[in-house]
Design brief:
Number of domains: 1
CATH architecture: 3-Layer(aba) Sandwich
Largest sheet: 4 strands, antiparallel
Helix content: 25-40%
Radius of gyration: 17 Å
Number of helices: 6
Strand content: 15-25%
Low-confidence stretches: none
Shape: globular
Distance between the termini: 38 Å
CATH topology: NADH Oxidase
Strand order of the largest sheet: 1-2-4-3
CATH class: Alpha Beta
């Protein structure tokens, strides 16, 4: 699958098989995340790979819409020191990984972790670190139901403005 096709065909998935992710596939996804740029080249983010069900269940309590994340074979948490947290960098890294996962045939979904204290406790982060988001990764279930929020994308003509708003 070429890059453009991986980008435009990627959809957030919340239904996975229990098939483990092959090490070589996971390494390519992680490498895609590692290669994301970061502000001032600081590379503050660290990845926490969560396969342990108890840790996944604790992470599921860390967000407002996260009850399903314990069903994924892998949850990847994005940790950064609170003083160096740059959400744009986290998003860049996560998107690189989700696009690479799509190209490999994996499903993925970003997850916001709104309750910092619970997220920190779930993975044992020091008090001066944050875990603002995670992504789930796994092989998609073939007959997964469509999202109840599924809709048509905004037309490009509606999305784009040239030079000014009007």
């Amino acid at each position: 699958m070429d890059t453009y096709q991986a980008i435009i065909s990627k959809r957030d998935l919340r239904h996975y098989t229990d098939q483990p992710i092959d090490d070589d596939v996971l390494q390519r996804v992680l490498q895609a995340g590692r290669m994301a740029g970061s502000a001032k080249n600081e590379e503050n983010n660290r990845l926490i790979l969560v396969t342990d069900q108890a840790v996944q269940d604790a992470l599921a309590l860390s967000g407002d819409f996260t009850s399903w994340i314990g069903t994924a074979p892998l949850v990847v948490g994005f940790a950064a020191p609170a003083a160096g947290l740059r959400l744009f960098d986290v998003g860049r890294q996560a998107q690189n990984m989700m696009i690479a996962a799509q190209a490999e045939g994996l499903g993925s979904c970003p997850v916001t972790l709104q309750h910092a204290d619970k997220a920190r406790a779930a993975v044992g982060l020091p008090d001066d670190w944050e875990l603002p988001m995670a992504i789930t990764l796994g092989w998609p279930v073939a007959d997964a139901p469509d999202s109840p929020l599924k809709r048509e994308r905004v037309d490009l003509e509606e999305l784009v403005r040239h030079n000014t708003w009007s």
